[in-house]
Amino acid sequence: MSANRGVEDPALDPSIERGGEADVTVVLEQIRAHLDLEAETEYELLEELRGHLEDAVAEARARGLSEREALVEVAARFGVEDVGRELQATHVGWGTADGVVAAALPVVCALLLRWLVFAPDGTAVGWRELLERPAFWVVSVAALLLPFLRFPRWRYALASWAFFWILSVIFVAWPAVR
Amino acid sequence: MNHMAIIETILRNRRRFFIEIRDGVELAPKMRAMLVSSIIFFALYGAVMGSTHSLWQALSSAAKLPVLFLATLVVCSPTLYFFNLIFGSNQSLMQNFALILTAIVVTAVLLLSFAPIVLFFLLTTSHYQFFKLLNVGVFAIAGIVGVLFLTQGMGVVSAGGKEGASARRTVVRLWILIYAFVGSQMAWTLRPFIGAPSMEFELFRQLGGNFYANILVSIGEILGFVTVR
Q1: Could you report the predicted ipTM of this complex, rounded to two decimals?
Q2: Do A98 and A169 reside in the same domain of the chain?
Q3: How far apart are CA B156 and CA B21, in angstroms?
Q4: Of A91, A107, A130, which closes a domain?
Q5: Shortest CA distance to A3 belongs to which of A27, A34, A23, A19?
Q6: Interface test with A, best of B1, B13, B40 (most A CBs within 10 A)
Q7: What total number of domains does chain A contain?
Q8: How many CB pairs under 8 A join A and B?
Q9: Contact status, residue B2 vs residue A93, Cβ threshold 8 Å
Q10: Is the pLDDT score of B1 beyond 60?
Q11: pLDDT of residue A74
């Protein structure tokens, strides 16, 4: 779709009509055609865009444009292809990065605990003694803060942190049990 | 983030990625991203493997695992290039290198995804032979998926060649066998990666024996047929 062409002659841009009525969803679907991201990320991005589009359409309607004209103008101003490409370029790789951090962070923190905080010979350390070690606090604060700062979604951070703590408890408790 | 974007393109839209390699689009940044990512992922997995033994073993395995894969890549890629060339390929050595690197980075990503599971078993079992076979299994799964990517990539790239596409497919399959043999021998040469609990830390063990015989002995011990001292 050529957005600018649509502004010059809205009749050339019938694709933004659905069932005879202009529809923001159709513009969003055209943007989605340029995206190849995780479904959840696409949904969140498009829902955010929907709000901006609806505001812009309402503003154009307030200036006296019809629903269809308002939508054509807004679609042209946003630039469907450009927005799609820009969103794709900005967000591609985020899903993989989340996955990599989710796999790597608990492992890195667990290894740091194992070799820096606990005795390097693998001796189990009691919690009381552990709490007095600065290295323990550094690792635990890093394990807590990094996911919260890195992940856009908090549940990943919580899952990562829970996994780290389960590992750390196993590190302390399991050798003693054995 | 750029590196992650390239990894995501490989995993999510591999056909487009292979077409870009075939057309020689931005090969250098792609290879850089794959190289850096695979070194980091292999190092992390290596550290997990070595953590059964000692800190030195963990550090040594973290350094040796990327070397294992990259050295195998360097040793094997000229063979693939020249055989493809003989059978009509118009791809450069760098393009072949990039395709093999794709297989390696997929293997590395999968190994990283297995790292928490392997760490869990490291913490909850003390059976050295079981842990060794677990790692062999993980490497086999990750390696097979990696070479499947390579086969698909070669298929896409070969589609643009002049002639001999079916011969090149056969060459890739044979090359994968060579790659597996070279890789296993390289792993045997660079061992230990886990470190037997009864032995002191060593950067490299003396040459002798072979990878396959060692795996059979491990299976034998787990099944109770053999006792390894």
Answers
A1: 0.73
A2: yes
A3: 10
A4: A91
A5: A27
A6: B1
A7: 2
A8: 68
A9: yes
A10: no
A11: 85
